[in-house]
Amino acid sequence: SLRFGYLIYKNDSRVLLRDWAEQNIPAGSKILIYARLTRLPSVKEAIQEQELLDPSSLRKIDMAESNFSLPGRKYFHALNLYDVNNPEFYGNLEKYARDNNYQYIFLGGTDPREVERLRILQGLADQGSLLKSFGKFQEAYSPAIGQLTKNPFYLFKLKEFGPPVTVYKLY
Length: 171
Known about the structure:
With 171 residues, this protein is of the alpha/beta class. It has helices spanning 2-10, 13-24, 44-53, 60-67, 87-91, 93-99, 115-125; strands at residues 30-34, 77-80, 104-108, 129-134, 141-142, 147-148, 165-169. It is globular.
């Protein structure tokens, strides 16, 4: 159980992605993020932009960040799109990203219900260049859905928990 806790806390692919971004991407960079349970700290303007796309997509943390920021913390112009349900937006995503000068896209997802949305997002990402990836699909171990079906000793072989997530540099 200690190894399990360590993997979830320290070596989750989404945590590794966030840490990598904070070390390698300049503050204020424009980033599209589509990965479950993944977000970056956002500047107020990004939160306002996301609210225009889909007001119901905002979380309490978004509201808090729009009202104050912590000194010394790195913030990005990050659209945390996982909860944005706006078919028109996704239908024009490539133009939107180009017209609004988005520089990066972070992708992650394996849910079959997201196939069409992921196809659109991957099409945009494929126009850029892959910078970094973390994690791999782990059917036997998914704490998010309460699935731990393999021998517990296999946990000692895992280097990372979490779904596959990737970073692409766009235009």
